[in-house]
Amino acid sequence: MNILITRPLIDSEDLMGKLFSLGHKIIHVPTLKISSVKKESIDISQYDALIFTSANAVRNLKVLNKDKNKLCFCVGSITEKIARQLGYQNTLSAGGTVNALKNLIISSEQINEKSRLAYFCGDNVAYDLDLELKKEGLKINSIINYKSEKITDLNDQNKTIITNHAPDIIFVYSLRSGESFLEIVKNYSLYPLMTGSKVMCISEKVANVFKSDGWKKVEIFNPGEELLKL
């Protein structure tokens, strides 16, 4: 099976290795360039908990006096793994979706209306987690610590691979990534090669972008379920 991965290499290397070991052909077409936002280090001692909706938010975390026991809410297992690698021991994973993360925070016995939360995120989000938590009466401060830039170019090697091995499955991990991928498909006239491709989207919002563009085979998945969806 030909599987196209749109995530940056740092986030998809393990998955690509597993897929390759199972005999699949991997086409890696990263659609976003991630970079850190320059800002002063954050004093997290003024917060009761930290919230991360992506591994990039953890990787670009700059804090004063790191507290390894600070409560950290993570959207999924990969994000939690990165947080633990940085030394944070008091972590909770929501299993892969932002809505599940919201529910995890709201239902936590360690959080109440007096709690102060720091939400680290990128400059482009598909779900307004901060607004949703504020509706629940929680005090939350959004801190943008990384930004994403669309990649809409396709190198000759990948174009040749796609031409000779049209993808059976395409994994898309964010709304912005999906938009970038569609630009690539349009710019390089790849639609005829992908009429049989199934697009696996991380959320309903992402799926709707592809459906609106005329894609027929569109499904939703949770990170970590990629192998189950093959």
Topology:
Layout: E1 2-5, H1 9-21, E2 25-28, E3 32-36, E4 42-43, E5 49-52, H2 55-59, E6 63-64, E7 71-74, H3 77-85, E8 91-93, H4 98-107, E9 116-122, H5 129-135, E10 139-150, H6 156-164, E11 169-172, H7 175-187, E12 198-201, H8 204-212, E13 218-220
Parallel strand pairs: 1-2, 1-11, 4-6, 5-7, 5-9, 7-8, 9-10, 11-12, 12-13
Antiparallel strand pairs: 3-10
Helix pairs in contact: 7-8
Structure description:
By secondary structure, this protein is α/β, with parallel strands linked by helices. The chain folds into 2 domains: 2-31 and 151-229, Rossmann fold; 35-147, Rossmann fold. The chain is 33% helix and 25% strand. It contains 8 helices and 13 strands. It has helices at residues 9-21, 55-59, 77-85, 98-107, 129-135, 156-164, 175-187, 204-212; strands at 2-5, 25-28, 32-36, 42-43, 49-52, 63-64, 71-74, 91-93, 116-122, 139-150, 169-172, 198-201, 218-220. Helix 7 (175-187) packs parallel to helix 8. It is elongated. The mean pLDDT is 94.
Quick recap of the structure?
This protein is an alpha/beta fold and 230 residues long. Helices cover 33% and strands 25% of the residues. It folds into 2 domains: 2-31 and 151-229, Rossmann fold (3-Layer(aba) Sandwich), CATH 3.40.50.10090; 35-147, Rossmann fold (3-Layer(aba) Sandwich), CATH 3.40.50.10090.
Descriptors:
elongated; alpha/beta; Rossmann fold; 230 residues; five-stranded parallel beta sheet; 33% helix
User: Secondary-structure element sequence?
Assistant: EHEEEEHEEHEHEHEHEHEHE
Q: How far is it from the N-terminal to the C-terminal residue, by CA?
A: 9 Å
Largest sheet: 6 strands, mixed
Poorly predicted regions: none
- Given the structure, what is the number of helices? 8
